[in-house]
Design a protein that fits this description.
alpha+beta; NADH Oxidase; 5 strands; about 45% helix
């Protein structure tokens, strides 16, 4: 069997050397993200995933917040210099996607379906993971590089304030994206017998 999806999945890699050498418009990228998230599955069709797509100074603001937050935490100047350099690679991209979960929906489902209440938070994590992979792959299909970062919950309050986001939207990840200025390195895989099992 052949799968175009697997070809695209292999193309999806963590790209850290990002640039803004992109001719695609922000509106086109936003529509790609929007349609990809809308078509991603979620338990009970709960649609708990929220995506905020930022460009220009708004995208830079995310990484300014990250840098300012970590500067208060990382006291060693040498260590912070490395951290600052890493953050600069994210800021160098064309934009940033914030992935959030609408916790109001999660809590409402917990109340509506008490027999499954313990699962809805986990299911929302599955939904956002699926959406992230789908968007990441769609970006790769269009020759855009990206990586997935997790500076939450350290930056949650500042992000919500900066972009006036609803309180119920819980930040789960940040995805800087842009032109691919250098390819990803080789990817290692665990031995197949440690990962897969065929039972007939």
């Amino acid at each position: 069997m052949q799968s175009k999806f697997n070809e695209l999945s292999a193309k999806r890699r963590s790209i850290y050397a990002l640039g803004d050498n992109i001719t695609t418009s922000p509106e086109e990228i936003f529509n790609l993200v929007k349609e990809t998230v809308r078509n991603s599955p979620s338990a009970f069709n709960s649609q708990t995933v929220r995506a905020v797509v930022l460009f220009g100074k708004s995208s830079d603001k995310v990484w300014d917040i990250v840098e300012e937050t970590l500067q208060k935490i990382v006291k060693d100047p040498t260590a912070f210099a490395k951290t600052k350099a890493k953050i600069a690679t994210f800021r160098a991209g064309f934009g940033t996607i914030l992935y959030l979960t609408d916790t109001d929906i999660v809590h409402n489902l917990e109340e509506q379906f008490p027999s499954y209440a313990a699962n809805f938070a986990d299911w929302s994590e599955q939904a956002i993971g699926g959406a992230q992979q789908a968007v990441w792959t769609a970006l790769a299909e269009n020759n855009l590089g990206a990586s997935l970062q997790h500076y939450n919950p350290l930056i949650d309050d500042a992000i919500h304030e900066a972009f006036d986001l609803p309180e119920s939207w819980k930040l789960r990840a940040e995805m800087p994206f842009g032109s691919i200025e250098a390819p990803a390195g080789d990817k290692d895989y665990l031995p197949e017998d440690q990962v897969f099992k065929l039972i007939k």
